[in-house]
Write a structure and sequence with these properties.
Thiol Ester Dehydrase, Chain A, homotetramer, globular, six-stranded antiparallel beta sheet, 28% helix
């Protein structure tokens, strides 16, 4: 059962004022995998009415960090890159799914896909990859 | 004189609800160069009291985009990567300085340094590089 | 049948002197997917007896480009990033598998996994992600 | 005097069969900075007569690693990204200049510019950024 792990992960998220400000939720947190989501809202947009790239970058950063933390414990994000695939709009939620590609004692390499979600329909809108490092 | 350019850039920033939410300011906007800053505040932090990586990623994304836009006009961010160099804390402001490394007709490659600023003192805390594409 | 596509892809590879120098083979080339491989040999190593990171970066670059080209036609590589997961040694071959994550009219975002292969056994040793652009 | 350091760096390069295969030279190796170069030759090209992206990626990887090693000692490359700015042709040499952006006890973040060089004339053709980690 990963229920305790999810509960702990959510407690950490609740301690991140910036995540609270953006309304982020932790949906999945289990060994090797994490999922974060946010509802689209007016305050997350840029000047053309799309979700600001910085919101997607936040989601990638935090989902990658949770994925790495799921196998390493206390961690920090070392680096990541993100590719934007399409404008983020016309969706109810943004859903970021991150998985561990490979990990050692001190760091994990993770990938994250960010989806535009409308009910059961998902379209990928960004893809990220990065390094999460164990805090010593 | 780049005063008009800066004024226009600030008008765009004022139309980005997410940038307004984070309190971002456009300090410099001239051909090949842009500078954004935000004051540190409680709502930008993560659970250890450092600025959340997502805030730094937002600054990198937006500063890179302004730098690319300064030579290309209407643009969108194609991709970027960011390396975190030190925890972001003990500073009055975060200052993101982005410059164009090279540009063609349709895209520009830009770099961004993000500094922890206390009065005249600056320490680099993140470094980014990315591609900005002209909107056709 | 993608036999013609594979044959054409191999003809292009044979026209790349650098790929010939490294002994690269195109194993798979179909819409959305490409696989390149090289046999480990003394000339590909660095000073500790591991395959040089530059060889892995070459494989990532070329496999990503083939994957993008499989959906876009004539292409060039815009950018990519690579994470090294473990030293590349103790293998018969390096196998790079690249797939398209998302594509539009002018560019494709692709990912690549590079494996250390010994007969049927595969271990991932590097992970890459990048942008391939259609040549206009 | 960094003459000893340069000599040691060159001895390491001479022990890298892949660097010898490509004809790489170490021009500069001093604290925080490294420069590698290769002469353009037929074997480094792709099918259109440009230098293969894999050669540029090799140069970025190795120059970044030397720059990181100049401040950390024994190192390995953790990850890097590279943006290609223009086709690499019509030059006598490729020159890769890497510098340390920031470093701690265990890793350094470095940047690298790769130039097309003709006598005294230099044009940038690629830009890279990555993480170099101390071997423990």
């Amino acid at each position: 059962m990963h229920a305790d792990m999810l509960e702990q992960g959510r407690a950490v998220l609740a301690q991140q004022p910036f995540s609270v400000l953006l309304g982020a939720r932790l949906d999945v947190f289990e060994p090797g995998r994490a999922q974060l989501s946010v509802d689209l809202s007016g305050q997350l947009l840029q000047q053309h009415g799309f979700v600001h790239g910085g919101v997607l970058a936040y989601l990638a950063d935090n989902a990658l960090t949770y994925a790495g933390g799921s196998v390493l414990g206390g961690v920090l994000t070392s680096e990541f890159k993100i590719n934007y695939l399409r404008p983020a709009r016309d969706a109810e939620q943004l859903v970021a799914v991150a998985t561990v590609v490979g990990s050692g004692k001190t760091q994990a390499v993770c990938r994250c896909d960010i989806f535009l979600q409308n009910q059961a329909d998902r379209k990928i809108c960004a893809a990220a990859q990065g390094t999460i490092r164990k805090v010593e």
